[in-house]
Structure formats: structure tokens, C-alpha cells
Amino acid sequence: VGATVSRLLREYRLPPKWATLVGGGGGASAIVPHLSKVLGIPHEIALEADVISAIGVALGLVRESVERSSISPSREEIYRVRMEAVERVLSQGADPASIEVFLEVDTQKNLIRAEAQGAIDFKAAATGAQGSESLDWRTLSQQALGLEQAVTPREEGQSLGLRAAVFETRRSAWLGLRSATRSQGLVVDRRGVVRLRVPEASVQQSEVSRLIQDLGEGLESRSIYGDGGLHYPYAYVLFGERIVDLSRLSKKEHQLSVLEMELEGAPGGDPAAILYSFEGSESE
Questions:
Q1: What does the DSSP 8-state code read for residue 236?
Q2: pLDDT-based confidence at 282, cuts 50/70/90?
Q3: Which of 9, 56, 89, 250 fits a disulfide with 94 by CB distance 3.0 to 4.6 angstroms?
Q4: How far apart are CA 85 and CA 228, in angstroms?
Q5: How far is CA 190 from the centre of its chain?
Q6: How far is CA 22 from the centre of its chain?
Q7: Please, which residues have CB within 8 angstroms of residue 73's CB and are 6 or more apart in sequence?
Q8: pTM value surpassing 0.85
Q9: How far apart are CA 166 and CA 164, in angstroms?
């Protein structure tokens, strides 16, 4: 079990200090505390742990992936691949409000790839959720980052169901002779779940009606030149309770097109935010 956990941490680029082992199933109370001690990762035992496996199956996610070849994909081609992935998870009983789509345009392999995932439509799963108004989300964010004392966020942003914050952290360098400053961004939902952790982050507050324009300007202002030419940061767009992951799209026009698709039907006056990073993310 330890080897599997270590491999997953590497695959998802998740620092162990940001991880928590959550035990479920009949053997959880015996295995998970010992594994926590061996790996040095904190742990919790889930409520009703002895039947959590059955509950997990009932409330599990459904996922589907669609790939299509295209030398120079148009907006219409990307849209068709996206909708095919969405329709597949809908046909398996996914709640439409929970569906998230991850799009990737691989220019080297001439591929469009869409991965859709959604939770099975059990409305009871969402009842009793704690409102964001009463949630001490800053403290939660600081605890998730392992900050020992309260720190004021450098930047903040929010949508109706999500809050984003960027904190400055310091770490000692060689022999402790100097320290380096590093920014860490988090997204927390109204239930207190950390949905996204982003290193070397910045956040831009917006609203739905301005998101396309703000994303275009934000990508340009944060772009850098490297060995391969112009590089744009990874972008994650927050509106409602959704996070639109645009980090797999390297071209700005593809990011803007995909965001336009995702915003169809969203109220224009709702608050929204964009989180940027040059180092990728660790998603929950």
C-alpha cells in the first residue's frame, strides 16, 4: 500500500506535506494509522468506515475519454469532441451540474483529447453542506499549506461557490544562509474542500461577462519568452462552483475558445476569478 501511495504522489506531483490519508473499509483502522506513521503523512478515518466502500461505489465518479485526430483543429472540432465526452458521462447517470471536462490539444501528435467526469446524481450527497459565509476558509487554506501562523493572503478572488487565495511562503536555501520566497495558491469550495493547489500562483478577479477579455489580457501580461518562444501560464477559471482547467492547452486561441464553450448559459453578472501558474497544479 505504501508503494502505491508513493507512486500516486509522484504521478500527481503532490507534495507529501499537502496530502492526507483518509481510511475507509473494514481494515482502515488497522492499516491507515500504521501507513501514516511509515510515510510521515497525517491521516483520518472516515465516518462509517466499515461501509465506506459500498458508499464509495454509489457516489463514485464516472469518467470517459474521447480522442480525435486533427492537424489544425478548429473551434467546431474541439466543441464536437467535448460534447461527445459530456454525452457519454451523461448516459451513465452523471449529474449535469457536476460534470467537468478537461481538454487537451496535442499539436505534436495532432490529437484533440477530451476527458469528462461527473458524480452520480445523488442529490443527498450535497445536502447539509456548510455555506461559504460561515467557513473560516483562510485558516483552512493556511492549514492545507502547512503554515504555522496566520498569514494575510497576497491576492484573493472568488466566484459564487469558490474562493481563491495566494499566500507567500518562505523556505531556507543552502545551509540556511538565505531564504527564498514562493507563492502558493489554493481554491476552496463552500464545503471546505481544497479543490486545487497551484504553486507560483497569481489570481485575477473578474466576472462572467468579462472572463474572455480578462483571460486574454491576463495571459498576455503574464507571458514569458523562453527557448521555445512565447510561453503562456497555466490558467484555471473559477465561476459558480466550477473550475475550468485550461492548463493542457498551450495556445491562447484554444484557451479562449474552450472557455467560451464552458460559459454558455452562465449569468454574466456573477463574480468569477482566474488563477495562473507557470508550474502546473495539484488537483484534489
A1: E
A2: very low
A3: 89
A4: 32
A5: 15
A6: 19
A7: 105, 112, 254
A8: no
A9: 7
